[in-house]
Amino acid sequence: MPLLSISIVVDSTNSNIFAASALYVIRPRMFLIRPHWGYSSVVKYVPCTHESSVRFRLPPNFDRFSRVTSNITRFVMSLHLKNRIVNGTNQPLAHALSNHLFYYPTPSHLNYTWSFGSLVGLVFALQLITGIILAMRYTPHTDWAFASVEHIMSDVNGGYLFRYFHANGASAVFILIYLHMARNLYYQTYLTRRTLWYSGVVIFLLMMATAFIGYVLPWGQMSFWGATVITSLVTAVPFIGEDIAYWVWGGFSVSNATLNRFFSLHYLLPFIVTGVIGLHLVLLHTDGSSDPLTLAATPDKVTFHPYFSYKDSFIFLVIFGMFCLLSAYFPNLLGHSDNFLPANPLVTPAHIVPEWYFTPFYAILRACPNKLGGAIGMFAAILLLLVVPAYIDSRTATKLVVAPYSQEHRILFWVFVGIFLTLMFLGSRAAAEPYVHASKLFTILYFAYFLVVLPVLAHYSELLVAEKN
After folding, report:
1. What is the pTM of this model?
2. What is the per-residue pLDDT across 216-232, written as a single tens digit (0 to 9) for each?
3. Looking at domain 104-230+244-282+302-348, which of 3.40.50.10070, 1.20.810.10, 3.20.20.70, 3.30.930.10 is its CATH number?
């Protein structure tokens, strides 16, 4: 006779069996462990040859079905079956994949802006692959670095494709990161998921360091002088600044030792970023995804697959198609023409400018006439993202913020976007008037948004809540 199917609901935190019930008839010598969508077990067909398995035959009197069901429930729970048993072996990888990729409970109202986070991970994986391939042909020496890049472009089969994918992939990563962070700022999800926000800012800092070091490796004119300008900022530190600069350079200026160190760090940092991204995902699945309709937790959830896995796949194909068009038809659109020249310490470019994704903070650096003040302002503009959640909470009493759904917040958020884009433009211009004075003005507006506007909006929201109550 055929066997009964057994449904086991398992707690994802301690893998204890909550309940089991007979469902329907399936093929002989197998029973089915079937998960509830909100928990973590995997759909498995478990052979009855395992010592913890048992075969149940349908009773001749089907009126006693409920009694048989309860007996099955007690028996299965007494077996202490875990949700990772497959053919008598543990499968933690299958369990983790099913828990975090397929059956992960996701709010049903998420829009396409929630896909930017997963897109960052996918494009970053592309960066890892292309970077490892390029490292096989790159030579980290001041005499041969530029020539090795030209060798990759001209002589290696498909080398130009990997190089352009890697160079434009860095821009794609930062575009998606900025969009991902803008979505969090717009919906203010950093107030309810602060640990998750902190880990994201750490990823952002590590990626900025990785991108800056990688920009030096082609050893073109802009690579060399960009490294010289940024690393010389540490000389502004009182008393020990010059010693730190010599230690970073491995000499008295940017030289072969500096290039070797940067190559080693550029190869190492992406793996550290991968680990922090893994921690970020663990924190995300611990706190749960945010909801665009409310800052509080919502019970209206569906499984990640197939509802959002297809959605993320679609937008990834769109972004990847645009990325391929950029790399194939406009590969040098986001680069600088001076970097087509080998590095020459005796010839300074007329205008030293970093990659476009660093230009907002470069504009803040140049806004202050003092080197130490400019360096502090540039790093404070980034580290401010770590402080703002706690700062806003300290300025409010109820810790209840509904500002994302107010018209004032939406308007001021888009004003901030305009400020950031203006700083990006000013950082790409020459250090001359009127760009310098404009940089000072928009630097003040940038800090005012985080230190003044957001706390005021939070206090205004508290007043609205108090009036309604």
Report:
1. 0.78
2. 999 999 999 999 999 99
3. 1.20.810.10
